[in-house]
Amino acid sequence: MARSLKKGPNINERLIKKVADRKPGDGMIKTWARDAVITPEMIGFTFGVYNGKEHVEVSVTEDMVGHKLGEFSPTKKFIRHGGRMQREIEKGGKEKKS
Questions:
Q1: Domain 13-97 belongs to what architecture?
Q2: What digits encode the pLDDT tens for the residues 36-46?
Q3: Contact 64/72 with Cβ under 8 angstroms?
Q4: pTM listed for this prediction
Q5: 66, pLDDT greater than 60
Q6: What pLDDT, in 10s, does the model give residues 13-40?
Q7: CA nearest 19: which of 53, 69, 55, 63?
Q8: Cα(24)–Cα(44) distance, integer angstroms
Q9: Which of the residues 12, 52, 54, 86 could staple to 33 if both were Cys, CB 3.0 to 4.6 A apart?
């Protein structure tokens, strides 16, 4: 659910302070704040966003402003869809390679 406009975006003050103290390219800034909104000050920095198991590197670009850090750090690993159709697709792919 989106945050109310009257409340404003959820900006993590500790994260903004870390960004202000560093220069872009100085290394990864580790964070657990997946719900923090990306601001224009964060452009060019690399964040290590925790996904529940490890820190995933997220390099912030201009088109990410307004999104949340957690959107770029998936928490689940997609392997593949299962079932009969998937087996047929994989079998057909192997035959084409041969």
A1: 2-Layer Sandwich (3.30)
A2: 899 999 999 99
A3: yes
A4: 0.73
A5: yes
A6: 899 999 999 888 888 999 999 988 999 9
A7: 69
A8: 5
A9: 12
The residue with tokens 């998937």 is: 86
Query: Can you read off the two tokens belonging to residue 14?
Result: 């500790």
Q: Tokens 């088109």 map to which residue?
A: 63
- Return the domain boundaries, the chain: 13-97
Q: Which residue is listed with tokens 């670009």?
A: 61
What burial letters (b/e) apply to 72-86, b meaning 16+ CB within 10 Å? bbeeeeeeeeeeeee
Cα angle, residue 21 at apex, residues 16 and 9 outer, rounded to 5°: 5
| Interior angle at CA 4, CA 3 and CA 8, nearest 5 | 85
